Amino acid sequence: MAHLSYVNVFAKDVVALSGFYQRVFGFPEIEAIRSPIFRGLDTGKSSLGFNALDAYELLQLSEFSDTRGIKFLLNIDVDSQADVDRMVPIAVAAGATLVKAPYVTYYQWYQSVLLDPEGNVFRINFMM
């Protein structure tokens, strides 16, 4: 069963923008995942992340950042690496564009980066 884990927003200033959501909605920061280019907030059932613009290059999205207006990415979690591998071709067959084939990230998740039919970025993840 898949579920929504994170919504990430690309931000010019991750500290200021995440601070706004903390102040307005009272979402606490998830300090364990803080980095110079990322802040995460606990929204209760899922999380809201804020990526610095450096993340465009990290996710191989630089060529889409200006022309497609990518401002966020959805992270959909699945139960295994095999589920990531199984679901990527299903997503592509349904109209998604594969941006980055499944790989292990530096933070030890197994994921693939895709664009939905309207150009919004999402990842299919397995947190190892």
Automatic annotation (TrEMBL):
<protein>
    <submittedName>
        <fullName>Glyoxalase superfamily protein PhnB</fullName>
    </submittedName>
</protein>
<dbReference type="InterPro" id="IPR041581">
    <property type="entry name" value="Glyoxalase_6"/>
</dbReference>
<dbReference type="InterPro" id="IPR037523">
    <property type="entry name" value="VOC_core"/>
</dbReference>
<dbReference type="Pfam" id="PF18029">
    <property type="entry name" value="Glyoxalase_6"/>
</dbReference>
<feature type="domain" description="VOC">
    <location>
        <begin position="3"/>
        <end position="127"/>
    </location>
</feature>
<dbReference type="InterPro" id="IPR029068">
    <property type="entry name" value="Glyas_Bleomycin-R_OHBP_Dase"/>
</dbReference>
